[in-house]
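Before surveying the methods themselves, we first show a specimen of the format, giving the amino acid sequence and backbone structure tokens:

:::
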Amino acid sequence: MSHTAPAYAVDPLYETKLIRLAEVLGSIHSLRNICGENSSQWRDRMDALLLAENPDPTRKARLIASFNRGYRTFNETYSACTSQAIAAIDRYEQEGTKLSSEIVSGYGN
């Protein structure tokens, strides 16, 4: 009688960067809405990320939780658009661009 170990999904090597990217997207979504952008552009990008990754339910929940954490952090910090909020948008957009590039160049097909 042979016993085989159960198969477990293995997170991709870029998982840490992807989790951070989800948080960055949530942060930008929150900050841009606070600063008057009435758009779902950043949530749509998160949806596109989930569609592209097609994660299992546990991984999907982690990615969504990370997006929501980024969103809540700034929603709780800023009630109005300030120069600090605008500076944070710039920083997070730069970080998101860098993370996206690293994921694609390091692990893309």
